[in-house]
Structure formats: structure tokens, C-alpha cells
Write a structure and sequence with these properties.
Elements (H helix, E strand, L loop, with lengths): L20 H4 L31 E2 L4 H6 L4 E2 L14 H12 L14 H9 L1
Antiparallel strand pairs: 1-2
Length: 123
């Protein structure tokens, strides 16, 4: 027994043998749920063709631009991960210096305090 009975919506009642009367009956057409929703047509698009790459802004750090495929794309988010102490914060706080106020930057850190980020940014 595991899961949820589609007929009566009770949990842990689904099994090879119906454990409720409702599961022995076919679901009524008026019952709502993901299996009874009207379908929506889906148009499939092939992967062949040419699409212009989005414009990219240089970070001012050649190797970072290379890893990012040529720079940052407007409106995108980049998640940088790695072992502690390898220089992620230092690298990411160096890039905005290249822009010198021409762009706004949102820096989000899940590990450092605001004081640590301020010290690195001012340094």
C-alpha cells in the first residue's frame, strides 16, 4: 500500500486490490484532477535553424568572460560555486569595478555576512 487513491483521494490506500469502494468504480467524468483536465495543444519546434546569440556585457576579466560564453547576459543570473577559499567572492567583486557605475549589480551571498562583503568590496 502506498500513494493516493485516485478515486477517493485517500492516502496510503492504493494497492493491487482495491481497498475502497470508490477505487473499484471508474472515475466519474465530473471529477476534477490532473487526469481529467482538458488538454492544450503543444507545438513542437525543431532545433535546427539559426538564432542570434544574446548580447553580452564583458566583465572586464577575460577568463571569466570565456567561462560565461562571452560575458554576462542582461536579465540573467549566474550561480558560482566551489570549495571555500578559492576566490569566488574576490573574483565576483572585481568584475563590477570594470563597469564603474555604468551598470547596477546585485550580489547575493548565502555564506558571508554583510560586513565581510563590504570589506571585500571596498578593498
Amino acid at each position: 500500500m502506498a500513494g493516493r487513491c485516485e478515486a477517493c483521494s485517500a492516502w496510503n490506500t492504493s494497492s493491487r486490490k482495491p481497498s475502497c469502494r470508490a477505487s473499484a468504480q471508474p472515475p466519474s467524468p465530473s471529477r476534477s484532477g490532473p487526469h481529467h483536465l482538458a488538454g492544450t495543444a503543444v507545438t513542437f519546434v525543431g532545433l535546427q535553424g539559426d538564432t542570434a546569440p544574446p548580447p553580452r556585457a564583458s566583465t572586464g576579466i577575460d577568463e571569466l568572460d570565456r567561462v560565461l560564453g562571452g560575458g554576462l547576459v542582461a536579465g540573467s543570473a549566474v550561480l558560482v560555486g566551489g570549495d571555500p577559499g578559492i576566490g569566488k567572492s574576490t573574483l565576483l567583486l572585481q568584475a563590477p569595478r570594470h563597469w564603474r557605475g555604468r551598470r547596477r549589480v546585485l550580489y547575493i551571498s548565502g555564506e558571508e555576512s554583510i560586513d565581510q562583503v563590504r570589506l571585500r568590496a571596498r578593498g
